[in-house]
Amino acid sequence: MKSITIHGLDEEIAKLIKKRAKSEHTSFNKIVKELLGKALGVGGKDKNNRDEFMDLFGIWKDEEEKDFSASIEDLETINPSDWR
Known about the structure:
Layout: H1 11-23, H2 28-40, H3 54-57, H4 62-71
């Protein structure tokens, strides 16, 4: 597999790629490869990429995860009387 270096990348483009990588929880490099593939009409998303399932499960923000964990906290404890 080949590697490339891009010199003089526009700062705005770099910021947008970084922002997208962060929002998709992936690397800068992976976003660049995806964009190049799409621009050239080849490839596409990696078939093991979870992004294709985002409409089914999504990603929780930290606060949402804390709220959910708090709401099921009582389910984490085994009550022996439930097993009689």
